[in-house]
């Protein structure tokens, strides 16, 4: 057990290392290594914990979900299914004002339900929806904001890599977390939809002043239906399989990859495309697995050094549950300004989840609140990751970072509004998992 | 991919080249293993659902392969700067300060993975000599391959970080604008 000074030094060293741009894996690993060596008075102890974490930390069946769900999303992203979805939804919303922005939200909601990372959605829809909106004379800030903002849907709707990582760190059932994200995710999509619809009625000029009515949406061909139908079937299979207890999340991920390959074949993907999806999936998931290894070391340091308990006592002294939640939300938003969502979860959840438990917060609702707030952080300057991805995928010189950040503000507010709703009504997250078979 | 404006020459270039080939090969191997896992899990689901015959030992195989996949990907991930980090300090206009931070990060990485490779070495040798297995009586998986992957992956990762450090240092002295930047890949 360390002293309060020890705890303060460990947390300060970790934060300093992260802010200075040392990879988060190394920051977590080295702080734990030196922290334990200091605590136990021997480097031997630190290095043997390092070895046992490397060997044991990701030795559980559910960790296979991470590379597999990422692989499934990568294959579907390359298959052109996102573009099919966009076309189909765009066509069916013909009568509504601002349909291109609405189709971006709708496409993201469905596509988000088969991909585990928001960045994948942001990249896909920057290429698909942005040129269309520019052609319809949409305000560019509004167009870019709708893409960056609605990409956050992917992290809430299952399968979500963030929910998997949350489940691992807080020792919760990943299947239940997946189901818990559904209602808040749909609510979020609905509110995005409502906002855009109202905005388009009030300020038609920003939505091209009816220019899009003159542009007849592209006709939906049979091969577009294949992609859209394939993705919808995959959503049903993954969600239904977990809901009815047919599959564990790991099995759903394995079957999901098989389904994605089937959609890819139906969409006439070439062998080369498949190969690149596989390599990309490895490139994205390997760092996540390593983060989990060193995060486990950090968890052990928190426990052995009594650091988690000390910070918990600090929070207990603060007072009521809402103040505590407000502090956590502030910390998440602050970290979101310069860090990615996975790292934020790994740094904070081992400390926050037990505290939330002490205050009697529902663990599922707490997870969803956390994901919503952390996703909002991906839209804030200076380094909001979703905004940077959209910027990287759009060649238009007028698509400046400032413009994308400004365009994302309404989505940022709606994300926080939904988080507030889940705080006030935890049933939004809890209701569906309770009904699970 | 990495944007080296500073190109390594001589022995450093040779080490960088060899490391590039090895890490790429290991990544491809890991990618194939990943597909294999997906197939194995699906086969198990079908076997259980359609013929009431689950495949014995799928969980053990998957778990062991996962560790191997992660560590085979490691050197490549390090080389392409795939490890997640914040880029907030990259906005600082002072080149010397920025590059010194990158250099520190690379050296810390080399140290960390060297410690891991060294700490795991003994376990690997023991598991080989004692022919250790893990799992149930019905299905046991040898431990040695996972431990070997950890030693090889982290050893090469340590070398990859050293090469990055050398490149950064070289770039600093050659005063180029962008020596071996630590991250090029985005995640979310």
Task: Write up this protein.
The complex is a heterodimer of chains A (437) and B (188). Chain A is mainly α and 437 residues long. Chain A is 78% helix and 0% strand. Chain A has 23 helices and no strands. The mean pLDDT of chain A is 87. In chain B, strands 1-2 form a two-stranded antiparallel ribbon. The radius of gyration of chain B is 20 Å and the shape is elongated. Chains A and B meet through α2, α3, α4, α7 and α15 of A and α1, α2, α3 and α4 of B.
Structure summarized in a few sentences:
The complex is a heterodimer of chains A (437) and B (188). Chain A has 437 residues and is mainly α.
Number of strands of chain B: 2
Cα distance, first to last residue of chain A? 43 Å
Unreliable segments of 5+ consecutive residues of chain A: none
Helix content of chain A: over 70%
Give the number of helices of chain B.
4
Largest sheet strand order of chain B: 1-2
Shape of chain B: elongated
Q: Main beta sheet of chain A, described?
A: none
Mean pLDDT across residues of chain B: 84
End-to-end span of chain B in angstroms? 18 Å
Instruction: Encode the helix/strand succession of chain A as letters.
Output: HHHHHHHHHHHHHHHHHHHHHHH
Main sheet makeup of chain B? 2 strands, antiparallel
Helix fraction of chain B, binned, reads 55-70%
Strand content of chain A: under 5%
Most extensive interface? A-B, 69 and 63 residues
Order of helices and strands of chain B: HHHEEH
Helix/strand-derived category of chain A reads: mainly alpha
Low-confidence stretches of chain B: 1-5, 184-188
Task: Please give the radius of gyration of chain A in angstroms.
Answer: 22 Å
Number of strands of chain A: 0
User: Overall pLDDT of chain A, averaged?
Assistant: 87
